[in-house]
Specification:
The structure holds two protein chains of two kinds.
Chain A: H1 7-10, H2 24-35, H3 44-52, H4 56-69, E1 72-79, H5 81-84, E2 88-94, H6 101-109, E3 114-119, E4 131-137, H7 140-154, E5 161-172
Helix pairs in contact in A: 2-3, 3-4
Chain B: H1 5-14, H2 24-32, H3 36-48, E1 52-59, H4 61-64, E2 66-72, H5 79-88, E3 92-98, E4 104-110, H6 113-127, E5 131-134, E6 138-141
Antiparallel strand pairs in B: 2-4, 2-5, 3-4
Classes of the chains: A alpha+beta, B alpha+beta.
């Protein structure tokens, strides 16, 4: 599938690249390359430049701009927690009243052991839960103890919830938005 | 998996803010007091050992394209088979078995919402299983770059 360059995130301000305009197709190729991760070469941005038909300066300018725009939220080592021993991973889902969900979500996100937290729509009757949080730990008793402290801390004793431990990872990898599978 | 002190430092210092400059691994090597070649070698080895999925950017999903968490309730004895079918669908980057009636949870990504919906429709028809589609309404914390608690690891 060939995707048209999206003007919103593929336009690089000329002042960041020394005045010249940067090829939108080159930037799209760069996006694809970046989704695979930084090449482990002494000059990774030069390697990316060669693969995407840009200059090293254009690549670095694009990465910096995408960081400042928030398109890239983190640049660094992406850890596979399971390999390190974080084998107990619970997705805890809650049915929180609509007027409370935002505040509860923010409070949960501030707990140090909550690694992800977001609101999603209910799908009643099959799925009554609208708030999700993830707890990564090394063993189940530890994760359940953290959940207990979360419940006590947030006063959620009466709140319907379910704990979904993961039993197997069939796939875990970086997102591929513009790249091909 | 046990990592040595230098590997741990690499992870502790560089889950974020990797330098954007011509020789980023040389910058890191100076910080850690090792050679640039050793930094590159260690990162490659961490990737090869599946400690790292990659070195690189994590894109903000809501701005990078479309993505959606979905779940299906697969018959327990067909779990592996259904999971494999889900993995064959385009754009699936996470896929976990979880303890629930909805026992397979996966994230699908696509360049835009229309493509995403098409892909999910096609997969749903293929699987002939009811699918929960749960787009994100609001994220309160969506960054897995938390500090590793080395002492707590087995």
């Amino acid at each position: 599938m060939i995707l048209p360059p999206s003007p919103e995130y593929l336009a690089i301000a000329p002042e960041t690249t020394g005045g010249g305009s940067v090829s939108a197709w080159g930037l799209l190729r760069l996006r694809r390359e970046l989704e695979k991760g930084l090449p482990l070469t002494p000059r990774p941005y030069q390697t990316l430049a060669e693969r995407s038909g840009l200059t090293e300066g254009e690549v670095m300018a694009a990465v910096r701009q995408w960081q400042s725009q928030g398109l890239i939220k983190r640049l660094g080592l992406v850890v596979k927690h399971r390999t390190l021993g974080y084998t107990a991973n619970a997705m805890v889902v809650w049915d929180i009243s609509d007027d409370q969900v935002h505040a509860t979500g923010q409070a949960m996100a501030a707990m140090p052991f909550v690694t992800l937290c977001y609101q999603r729509p209910r799908r009643v009757p099959d799925w009554p839960y609208n708030l999700f949080c993830m707890i990564h730990g090394t063993d189940r008793p530890g994760v359940l103890a953290q959940l207990d402290s979360l419940i006590a801390d947030q006063g959620l004793e009466q709140t319907p919830h379910a704990v979904l431990f993961s039993t197997r990872a069939y796939r875990q990898r970086g997102a591929c938005y513009v790249g091909r599978d | 998996m046990k990592l040595d002190a230098t590997d741990r430092q690499l992870i502790d210092f560089y889950q974020r803010d990797l330098p954007v400059c011509e020789r980023p691994f040389r910058d890191i090597s100076r910080q850690l007091g090792i050679t640039e070649d050793e930094v590159i070698g260690r990162l490659q080895s961490l990737q090869d050992r599946q400690v790292l999925s990659r070195v690189g950017p994590v894109f903000e999903h809501s701005r990078a394209g479309a993505s959606l968490l979905a779940a299906v309730a697969a018959p327990e004895q067909q779990l592996d088979l259904v999971a494999a079918r889900i993995n064959r669908a385009p754009g699936v980057n996470h896929n976990y078995a979880r303890e629930h009636t909805y026992n397979l949870w996966f994230v699908m990504t696509a360049p835009d919402e229309a493509v995403l919906e098409d892909r999910l429709d096609e997969l749903e028809q293929q699987l002939r299983l009811p699918m929960l589609r749960l787009p994100m309404v609001e994220g309160y914390h969506i960054d897995l770059g938390f500090d590793i608690d080395w002492e707590a690891l087995p």
